[in-house]
Amino acid sequence: MPVLYLIPVPIAENALHTVPPYVQDIARRLDVFIVERAKTARHFIKSLGPEKPIQEMIFTELPEHRHSADAEKTFLETIAAGKDVGLLSEAGCPGVADPGAGIVALAHRHGVRVVPLVGPSSLLLALMASGMNGQRFAFHGYLSPKRPELARDLRRLEQLARQHDQTQLFIETPYRGQMVLDVALDTLQPDSVFGVALDLTGTGEMIRSLPVREWRKAGKVELAKAPAVFLIGKN
Amino acid sequence: MPVLYLIPVPIAENALHTVPPYVQDIARRLDVFIVERAKTARHFIKSLGPEKPIQEMIFTELPEHRHSADAEKTFLETIAAGKDVGLLSEAGCPGVADPGAGIVALAHRHGVRVVPLVGPSSLLLALMASGMNGQRFAFHGYLSPKRPELARDLRRLEQLARQHDQTQLFIETPYRGQMVLDVALDTLQPDSVFGVALDLTGTGEMIRSLPVREWRKAGKVELAKAPAVFLIGKN
What's the complex ipTM? Predict the structure, then answer.
């Protein structure tokens, strides 16, 4: 019976060691992939030393929105031919803060076995490393890009964190991380806990998680331009 | 400078392959550990073939509640001596649906570098494999153990899932999974999506994620007694 394998990929440069060998072995023997971006997926599969020449493989791209006729067609035809399919995103785990969920849902509807594989996830690593409540948490994707709306979003998440003792996570692109940090330290209450995790598993990994009061005492922090996870927690 | 390493451990029997070799290498050279349960932690470290005899290592247990004088003392003394500390739980990632967050928060307060390592997390694997929204989700730990309160909890989570298109995750012990499944299929609306992930990465791995209507059509499902993650999503 064919299987849909969910294949995590590294979240930092030169971090192939974060993808366990059993996952690399599975990825190496597949030849049909549904991917977020064909170029980076080909590069990743090539780096594993696959069994077949890369030109003989199929890489079908998955657009951001949930349904994609091309990807669904590739999936259904491959499965009908009795072959396994690999699903992978640009970085981290497919379907988590990344596209891919639509194909997984399709697999369930068709009774195809779905096998999630172990690998790096910036959300999970950031949560573990935050020291905040990991018994109750929520992830919100990206917040509003503009300052006044961002401040309002941050206050809303702070309220959820305080009311429910539920850690709040969100992400931001490399070039907007500094703005988020600055607005958060201006906006949040002194005893709320605020966390930043940058370039996880990479050479520039930086993780800091402290009450807002302590951040303010320590003075201005310059964030490197890297993918960032932010967290708000109750003290 | 000493480091606090957050060390994931397997979540199923005979699944050491899910812990990447670089994580095993780090765990192998440490000799002070703060752990959820000393007996299983010793067993895990022994299975890696550590550099030192296991009798010369320190394993300090971390109770369920957030603060533990023993664990804090072990941590602070080891760090003061310039040595690294490993933090590990019984299964999966320390601090995520498991104890450990208090020690991580202590490390941040003392300016100790915290390094989260990659490994298996049943929550993350279940979310990836659910085909539900992975751009917005919340984890709630355990729900109420008794039927009427459980049904009320399930309706509350269903409402959150539908209102915010936010996938809702919770966990249950092996011997209560069947009851949760039965109550959920009695309680939830036909077009809500319900997911179960059992014994992830283990030989009994079972993942199913379908609209409640489809679960009902398929007839009674008998769940094996294994650790379970449940999910409720919007269709």
Answer: 0.96
Domain hosting B80: range is: 3-116
Beta strands B32-35 and B113-116 are unpaired
Q: What is the pLDDT of residues B4-55, one digit of tens each?
A: 999 999 999 999 999 999 999 999 999 999 999 999 999 999 999 998 999 9
CATH number, domain of B94, equals 3.40.1010.10
Chain A residues whose CB is inside 8 A of the B18 CB are 20, 22, 118
Asked whether residue B70 carries a pLDDT value surpassing 90, the answer given is no
Q: How far is A149 from chain B, CA to nearest CA, in Å?
A: 18
Strands (DSSP E) found in chain A:
3-6, 32-35, 58-61, 85-88, 113-116, 137-142, 167-172, 193-198, 206-211, 228-233
B1 burial via Cβ count (<10 Å: 0-12, 13-18, 19+): exposed
Q: Are B13 and B202 in contact (CB under 8 A)?
A: yes
DSSP A18: G
Token reading at A79? 């499965």
CB contact under 8 Å between A109 and B210, yes or no, is yes
Would you tell me how many other CB atoms lie within 10 Å of the CB of residue B191?
A: 11
Q: How far is residue B5's CA from residue B119's CA, in Å, rounded to a whole number? A: 13
Per-residue pLDDT tens digits for A99-119: 899 999 999 999 999 999 999
B50-79 burial, b if ≥16 CB within 10 A, otherwise e? beeeeeebbbbbbeeeeebeebbebbeebb
Nearest to B104 among A18, A93, A131 (CB): A131
Q: Which of A226, A186, A225, A228 is nearest to A209 (CA)?
A: A228
pLDDT 10s digits, A122-177:
999 999 999 999 999 999 999 999 999 999 999 999 999 999 999 999 999 999 99
Under a CB-based contact definition with an 8 Å cutoff, are residues B173 and A80 in contact? no
A138 shares a domain with A224: yes
Name the burial class of residue A90, with classes exposed (0-12), middle (13-18) and buried (19+) by CB atoms within 10 angstroms of its CB. middle
Give the whole-angstrom CA distance, residue B143 versus residue B145: 6
Whether residues B91 and B132 fall in one domain:
no
What pLDDT score does B23 carry? 98
Task: State whether B87 and B175 are in the same domain.
Answer: no
Statement to judge: residues B152 and B217 lie in one domain: yes
Residue where one domain finishes, among candidates B69, B89, B116: B116
**Domain-ending residue, one of A90, A116, A142:** A116
**Amino acid occupying residue B107:** A
B-chain residues near A1 (CB < 8 A): none
* pTM, entire model: 0.96
